[in-house]
Design goal:
The chain is built from 14 helices and ten strands. With 383 residues, it is of the alpha/beta class. The chain has a single domain, classed as TIM Barrel. About 7% of the residues have low confidence. Bound molecules: 5'-deoxyadenosine and FE2/S2 (inorganic) cluster. FE2/S2 (inorganic) cluster binds next to α14.
């Protein structure tokens, strides 16, 4: 039998290698996931935080999340707005409502708007392009992130040409068999991966990600997720715990844990010190201090909700989602205080990904050689 000490010594060594080289073989990731324990997670965070610090200092980027539509043609087994959920109340924001959200968000210091929605067939290229032109015309200092699911390459290109800067499309799991158990037959792992490749080729800052603790997830599937992220080199990666939704086939499943999610956040930071990593709302949902813990594990982004208050409850991907009763300004203030309480500060900044990402052969340094970024420099205006 391998002793606990031997596992711990091996995990330490792997973490130190990852912090230095930013890559591991698949087996190394698997061993790290299997070695998950409070001490391993504490050591991972100890290595991850200085890397985060060297790139982003104590700054936390904010993104204003606008949930455009809760209509969705897909039927992902975990998701509360899946097509089969007849009890979900559906809504769609008008362009005027969306521009109102942006206006209030801009006044509050948001310089990134994330337009997220279900796969709503009415969100056709032309409608989204018009919206992008309107937002970019009014707020040329802002970045726009889209998170509208799978679309054709032509569609992604058209939206990029209309001004979209970034695209979030979580891969959900990098294991094809696992993907097939989380999704209906009409969805395919290959197509999801092709979408991510297309987005990258077109020139978007791309975000992928997965849920922690989803049904049938194993150390093996998680190791594949980490290896996939190492290889894809996305600009952003969103991970949060799986949280069951009462009207889905996974209603009775266990939620993911804060501990494992934070450990994986630290591993992501070790894989890429420049990665934009959010401390997600789902993490804040399963633990009242989840987002603070996520930042302390190595995350550098928070995404408060800018959607109109009357629709928030309807964008219920999982049960007990937080911030459905608050106004945008309340969430922004709340998050600023939360970040201050742990010695970080929310900043007014587009928060672009620092690409090209670090070279594997050179040590990570505090700036990118272009004078724009230094860990402890006061380059941001605090909110
Ligand atoms: N629990 C946690 N996250 C979820 N998502 C969807 N449903 C759930 C759930 N029940 C995540 C998915 C999706 C993102 C928008 O929200 O990863 O990509
Ligand atoms: Fe929404 Fe705290 S962030 S209430």
């Amino acid at each position: 039998m391998i002793s606990t000490n031997a596992v711990w010594a091996k995990a330490r060594e792997l973490l130190e290698t990852l912090a230095r080289d930013h890559e591991l073989p698949l087996e190394g990731y698997r061993a790290l996931v299997e070695a998950y324990a409070p001490e391993t997670a504490a050591y991972a965070a100890e290595l991850a935080v200085p890397l985060r610090q060297a790139v982003y200092g104590k700054a936390v980027f904010v993104r204003g999340l606008i949930e455009l539509s809760s209509y969705c043609k897909n039927d992902c087994l975990y998701c509360g707005i899946r097509r089969s959920n007849a009890s979900a109340e559906r809504y769609r924001l008008t362009p005027e409502q969306i521009l109102d959200c942006c206006e209030r968000g801009h006044e509050m210091g948001f310089r990134t708007f994330v337009l997220q929605g279900g796969e709503d067939p009415t969100l056709a290229d032309e409608a989204v392009s018009d919206l992008l032109h309107a937002i970019k015309g009014r707020y040329p200092d802002c970045a726009v992130t889209l998170s509208l699911g799978e679309r054709s390459r032509e569609s992604y290109q058209a939206l990029f040409d209309a001004g979209a800067d970034r695209y979030l499309l979580r891969h959900e799991t990098a294991d094809a068999a696992h993907y097939a158990r989380l999704h209906p037959r009409s969805m395919s792992f290959e197509h999801r991966m092709q979408c991510l490749r297309n987005l990258k080729e077109i020139g978007y800052q791309v975000g992928c990600g997965f849920m922690v603790g989803s049904p049938w997830q194993t150390p093996e599937t998680l190791a594949k997720d980490l290896k996939f992220i190492e290889e894809l080199r996305p600009a952003m990666c969103g991970i949060g715990p799986f949280v069951p939704h009462h009207a889905t086939p996974f209603a009775e499943r266990e939620a993911g844990t804060v501990g494992l999610t934070c450990y994986l956040l630290s591993l992501l930071r070790l894989i890429d010190p420049t990665l934009n990593i959010p401390a997600t709302t789902a993490l804040g949902t399963i633990d009242p201090r989840g987002r603070e813990k996520g930042i302390q594990a190595g995350a550098n982004v928070v995404m408060p909700n800018l959607s109109p208050r009357d629709v928030r409850k309807k964008y219920e991907l999982y049960d007990n989602k937080i911030c459905t009763g608050e106004e945008a300004a309340e969430c922004r203030g709340c998050l600023a205080r939360r970040m201050e309480s742990i010695g970080y500060r929310v900043v007014v900044d587009r928060g672009d990904a620092r690409q090209p990402a670090l070279s594997r052969t050179k040590p990570v340094c505090a700036n990118y050689g272009d004078g724009t970024r230094g860990g402890d420099q006061e380059y941001h205006q605090p909110i």
